[in-house]
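Structure, all two chains, one model.
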Amino acid sequence: MEPSTFATRAARYLRQAWDNPRIEVTDARKIIGGASRLTWSVDATWTEDNGAVQDRRLIFRLDPPSSLLESNRGTEYAMYRALYGTPGIPLPEPLLIEDGGDAFGMPFFVMQRLEGAAWPQELLTPAFAGRGESIVRQMFRVLGSISAVDYHAVGLDEVWPTPPVDDAWSFELERWEKTLHDHDLGPMPITQAVIRELRRNPPPPIAGLQIVHGDFRVGNVLFLPDGVMGVLDWELTHLGDPHEDIAWSMARNWRSGLTPEKIGGAIDPAEAISEWETTSGMRVDPVSLKWWQLFSHVKANAIWATAAHEFSTGRTSELMFGTMGWLNIGSQEKWALEDLGVAAS
Amino acid sequence: MRPDAPFVMRAALKTLEEISAGQTDAQEVSRLRGVMSLLSIVQSEWDTCAASRVAGISRYADIVRQGSVVMAGERQEHLRRVLTSVEEAAPDLRISTLEMTLDHLRMAVIDLQAWLEDTEGPEARELLSAIWRAEYEDAKSEDRNHSFW
């Protein structure tokens, strides 16, 4: 959709939704990146009766016909609503949700646009010189705050299926195994062997279920030199074992090629864990972490397989979808085997 | 000497680099970089794509051959049939055929590996270790060393 068309439709929608015929959209642009939803940045403005000019900076998150992740718009929006205002968890304010396709031909929700950058390369620019470590440390304190939320207290037990505590791991493993099966790319002996290994040696039991962001990493956190401004992309959020988020956020996929031993190009894994423990009030179990690290390879490959499948079946022509499967699966399987100790054998 | 495909792709990459340098639209730059990234991988794999698949077939065929010795009955027959189909396809060096042959072998390896994991004995352990090593080599050959940032 052309920006001018999007702006016209956004203005029409906002006038109706906020019952304000004076609303004008002065800028609309598609945001690059983000493979599961189409994201548009919109500037809306209007003049009050007293002559005061108001403006709102907005994000429209639309559900495209083809998506990298099978995700639930309602769940993501509910997450923002439940956690908005929670100390230690910076979030954009959720504003509107629409299940119909009248405005843009697909469902969507609207939220406040926060200032900041999400693209990890920004951390390497002069504006962030000397700030990377503090930002990445804060990122893990934010994750700890997410893990510490009592999901009953914020009403999230109504939103998700609640897996039995003892089966949280198998719930997730089956989910991603099914995703792989549904987006078959041909036989993947390594990934299949890893799945069997995970099932044979489950992680230690957990005390209770916690909120899991599901895709917490550099790239899904908005930051300025002053610190973390917002946690984004809650499409994969669910209840489960918080070790899942820690393992995923530290995965080799998200590390800089320049400093692959550092999380976010800035801190050691042990430091990241320490920051998480400070705000979560929990301790990381190394055995659990190891299990979830191995699991992360299965989850990542399921995501890459989905992308490749969508591309190869013609459901999307987005080049990013085509490249993901081709570029990532071999590395992912190699890392999985290294985590299993195969490389050393 | 005729310009070969990698040579031509180098020129294509240079052209895209020049177009990219003149772009101010971040979205267009990102799309161009995606195309450049793909082209550079094709360029680097052009010379080795057939050889790496032939090596992979040889590696997995060896595993399946060993598996056909330790297995019995229908399982053994299945592995033998896979090996026969691999031999029949051997003269065909098209990448699509090599990929198909690799996939047949990978499928056979999945069954063999799962069976060995539940089988006791030093012979099974040894073959299982050989499978892990072959898989690691397979993963390395598919590793495009792609960095997120």
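Residues 294 and 340 of chain A are 8 Å apart (CA to CA).
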